[in-house]
Amino acid sequence: MSEPAENTEGLVTFDDTLDITMAATYFEKLTEMLNQHKSIVLDGEGIERIDGAGLQLLVGFFKAAESLHVTIKWQACSDVLKKSAKLSGLTVCLEIK
Amino acid sequence: MSIDLSQFKQTFIEESDEGLDVLESGLLALDSGTADDEVIHAVFRAAHSIKGGAGTFGLNEIASFTHVMETLLDEMRDGRRAISKEGVNLLLNSVDVLRELMDAARDDVAPEMSRANEVQAQLDVLLANNDGQVQSADVSDEEQTGSGVSNSGSEQKGWIVKFRPHEHMLRTGNDTVRMFKELSSLGDMENSADLTTLPEFTLMDPELSYLSWTITLKNNEEQGDIDKATIEEIFEWVEDDCDLTIEPLFEGGLVETEIEPSEPVENVIPVAEAATISDNVKPIEEPPVENTSTERVSPKKKKSSEGGSIRVGTNKVDTLINMVGELVITQSMLSQMGDEFSMDKLEGLREGLAQLERNTRELQESVMRIRMLPISFSFQRFPRLVHDLSQKMDKKIELKMTGEQTELDKTVMEKIGDPLVHLVRNSLDHGIESPEIRLAAGKSEMGTINLNAYHQGGFIIIEIVDDGAGLPKDKLLKKAIEKGLVSPNENLPDEKIYDLIFHPGFSTADQVSDISGRGVGMDVVRKNIKELGGNVDVTTNPGKGTKFTIRLPLTLAILDGQLIRVGSETYIIPLVSIIESLEIQTENINSIAGTTEVYKMRDEYIPLVRLYEVFDVKPETTRLQDCLLVVVEGDGGKAGIVVDDLLSQQQVVIKSLETNYRRLDGISGATILGDGTVALILDMSGLLAMAKEIEPVRSYANA
């Protein structure tokens, strides 16, 4: 993965569904964001359904950002997202409070 | 489909008893340095089987405790830890604890855990102590302690689920979040995700699964204990699409089943990545030291195997089946003969009846043999006893056993255990001298105790022989005179002096120690043995050693008896007690001091016992020359029983008088004869004691 080209803050707003059916779509989007921004804001307020594939995608994204020194922060997290991350033991690595 | 495992619990406990015996004997062999590699493997396997079975049956205290033992044994087995005396002694103590826990499980009561906790703490300390370890540097810390988790508790608190989805699992429509949600509904859940197998983001296929999880599911008060099957049900649809292990979680840590080799260090989940999913999750509790007052605590009682089961070799069962087969054939033959009977078939009928009698007797013997067990079941406790006590007393003692395969009735075996222990402890404590004294006496510093068993007639003979100092004759005599048991002028033969040790309340002050000399005395030992229809004698050789000889009937259920008649009464004398029977010759009858009648038989005089006087029955005649004399032996002496007639000899089934009526002096039991009448079985020792107290009312002269 190349270094982020732009020094601007990117925003990713998730729709209501972040599951295996949407994983490939968001994978491309997140990859693009990593390539373009040193700082990325995630908006997960609208997430009403997230599954193991969606969470795993986010975990991969956070790890990649860390290695690329890209700052990630949550603008908002839905309860579904928080609860699913907690159930899966992923709150710490997803930096969900 | 669920299986009611409780039906197999008893079998597990019995098998575990055997496993504990293997453990103990193996550890003793390790301690003495006589063991080969296979012994430590056998010991480990025994512990492993007990642990696995205990977990299966929900005996979590046993499973948890054995897990720690197994960890230590595993290190010894792999050569990572030296087999030290300290370790072996601790493991022997652990065997004792396991026996107590097994007893509690057998009795279905909550075990008393204080000793278990104490020993387990010692095991933990030993495991944490690297002094005994001989491992190489490349063995990880986790491997050193087996599971990597200190297992200081005992009660199962829940389950540990290790879940690694196969890559394609998510594509099958199964969702890990849904599964975790269902798991969390069962109890208090902690979930740690392992991210180490996650590839670089750009190399990820977002539809494949890369993560794995270790889920700790703890029981809570509201929902009660979590059923393993319920957990399995949650993963039912993905069982072919993931690697899944579900292991019990015990107080203080893991785990019931064999722990897989630990992962490389870089694969261990960072602590920071573990997350708590439930607000009400509490830290893993320390094991409770004491039981709550509401729990039933296992009473410290002796294990009772009476009424239990025995293992029977298939050869014995096969013999039994053959016997029954022959009995059926004989019965068919007689039945047919009865249908078409005519007087010319009388001889055939007699032969058939004789055949029936033979078959019945053989069948009876075969059935009795089922209850016969090798005396090794009783002997096997002694290596440990000698090991522990010789260490305690700083003595060097070797135990040698012969005839362990000699069989005797299970009931007799159960009842002879305590007297045997008492005699062996006595030999250890009072018989074998300290190494210094032995060396000073020109003996080897290593004392020897021999336990021998063999059959002799209808009896089993058990000998406890030590090469110690022997019994102090002068001291015994002096004590007997002090106690007024013997008059100062009385000239007792040596064997009578030595026999004084079996007198109630007889002991010399310096005999008392915490090894023996307390609790049951030698008088109780003799009493118990006599109650079994046996006897115990002692012979000693000053400075050379002492030999206790126990004589026991092989079985308590059936005896070969001689039927005798006195007046209209029929009695049974155990055949083993009878030396011979003869017609009375009046010229051989003498009277001692005008009171006691004696009969001169070859070179010895034997006292006569007129049975009709002892039992106060009306005899056919009081003329001795018209009577028969049955010479019997009982309680170390012979006597002549005067009877009206000798009837047949037959095997009789002993019915307890104590159970059905009450104990009677001179009578050991009763039986029902072929004609339906009840006959009393004479107890020779009791009878002769009674006869001594009866003042003869007449002598042969008035006959």
Word description of this protein:
The complex is a heterodimer of chains A (97) and B (703). Chain A contains three helices and five strands. Chain A is of the alpha/beta class and 97 residues long. Chain A has a single domain (8-87), classed as Transcription Regulator spoIIAA (2-Layer Sandwich). Chain A has a three-stranded parallel sheet with strand order 1-3-5. Chain A has a two-stranded parallel sheet with strand order 2-4. Chain A is globular and about 35 Å long. Chain A starts with 7 loop residues before the first strand and ends in a 10-residue tail after the last helix. With 703 residues, chain B is α+β, with helices and mostly antiparallel strands. Chain B has five domains: 5-135, Four Helix Bundle (Hemerythrin (Met), subunit A) (Up-down Bundle), CATH 1.20.120; 156-276, Alpha-Beta Plaits (2-Layer Sandwich); 314-370; 374-553, Heat Shock Protein 90; 558-702, OB fold (Dihydrolipoamide Acetyltransferase, E2P) (Beta Barrel). Chain B is extended. Chain B is built from 20 helices and 24 strands. In chain B, 37% of the residues lie in helices and 22% in strands.
Give a quick summary of the entry.
The complex is a heterodimer of chains A (97) and B (703). Chain A is an alpha/beta fold.
Large-scale geometry of chain A: globular
| CATH class wording of chain A | Alpha Beta
Number of strands of chain B: 24
| Biggest sheet overview of chain A | 3 strands, parallel
Average predicted confidence as pLDDT of chain B: 79
The largest inter-chain interface, given as chain pair and residues per side, is: A-B, 32 and 35 residues
Radius of gyration of chain B: 35 Å
Assign a percent range to the helix content of chain A.
40-55%
Q: Which CATH-level-2 architecture of chain A?
A: 2-Layer Sandwich
List low-confidence stretches of chain B. Answer: 134-153, 253-306, 511-520, 697-703
The chain-level structural class of chain B is alpha+beta
CATH topology name of chain A: Transcription Regulator spoIIAA
Strand line-up in the sheet with most strands of chain B: 5-4-1-3-2-6
Portion in strands of chain B? 15-25%
Given the C-alpha coordinates, what overall shape of chain B results? Answer: extended
Average pLDDT of chain A: 89
Write out the CATH superfamily name of chain A: STAS domain
